[in-house]
Amino acid sequence: MAKIVIPQQFCGPPNSGNGGYVCGVIAKDLEGPATSVLRARVPLDVSLDLRLEDGLMQLTDAEGGLVGKGHAADPALLPTPPEPPSLKFAQAAGERYPGHDQRIHPTCFTCGPERGEGDGLRVFPGQIEGAPEGHVACAWTPDMAFADAEGLVTTEVIWAALDCPGFFAWVVKEGRHGALLGTMTGEVLRRPPAGHEYIVMAWPLEREGRKETAGVALFAMNGELLARAHQVWIMSVPPAQAAA
What we know:
It contains five helices and eleven strands, in the order βαββββαββααββββα. By secondary structure, it is α+β, with helices and mostly antiparallel strands. The longest helix has 12 residues, at about 165-175. The protein is globular. Mean pLDDT is about 95; it is low at about 240-244.
């Protein structure tokens, strides 16, 4: 069992851990594709317990309450990404990021525009010109602050970079927001060096009641797929109320 702390730096909402980052923390020591499930608000700046039992990772709070869990995943659960946009189109898409004009989680570790370089990831996805509605992308250069001793982006930061784009795929597609990450099944094929430019892409898959699913992916400039994930988002209000 390991004692871990999710610092305030890695928040999503101001009082809770960034969903993708925490899912990555849970999954990073599992071999191959992994599924992480968040069961409760992730407290910040407090000691949590992370343990592996019979292939199941469990993250619990000081009282033993389950915060999240993870396990090895079937690769068939992972989506096949569409062709990534060019760097030029990804950069242009990033200029259409909804968070530039609206206050949507402005201090989020992944997508918060109020976070500076080396403090937040500054992943700002917007609609790709000429692509189906909700297909979003942006260019992303991970700061060296998020690299390990070998200069490679850490696994949990890669999961974090893939977090919010799936949310914004649905924001762009349906023109509303208000959902929390529930489940993320991800695979990091190769951890890339920090300080270089990459393309993050996301696209909506389907909605069933209050559940919205999305695919997300990270690409190198030559089109190499570096990481991908399937996400389940839980709407905070039913679709009919959200549209009202």
